[in-house]
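Aim 2 progress update. The chain analyzed this quarter is reproduced below.
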Amino acid sequence: MIIIFFNNLTDEQKELINKIFSDMNALFYYISYDILKNQFDAEDAVAQTFLNISGNIEKISNFSCPEMRSYCVVILKNESINILRKSSKYISDEDIDNLYQNSNKDETYNLEEEFLKTADKEILKSCISRLSEDEKNLIYLRFLNEFSFKQISELFDITEEAAKKRSQRILKKLRAYYEEGDKVVQND
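Predicted structure tokens:
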């Protein structure tokens, strides 16, 4: 089917796709791997990105080089986030350790993030598992991948302020879940 699709492209379009592939394939892989933390998922995201680029090649060919690169990276990030959303991410002990380490690296650090440093790992893991997929994704991007609120806002297509507010609400929810779990543990 892909061969049939490529037969509909002009030689110039095929050449542009080959150029994009040769110039940006490694970059795409590293960006996607940074988001997904999984080799196979990153490769899938890159492959799907090139299919999307091929499908939009007429539009892309009208962009200047920097615009083209930015547009292609946005496609890649969207594909990576879609894969992240589809997979139910298992939160490992290593992820929790990274959460602790990364919780205070940003200048927007607040008191809601403070509990991440002192929380019991097992209780925190069970709390995170209770979050929705979107909430897990935001926590994963913010604290494990160290995305800024600006980057998150671009990926979720929301304002930077909305990304901050969502993060704060999710952290409050995590804290509430944690306190519930902590009370259960103390009563045992």
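Confidence is low (pLDDT under 50) at residues 103-109, 184-188. The chain is about 80% helix and 0% strand. These observations will guide the mutagenesis experiments scheduled for the next reporting period.
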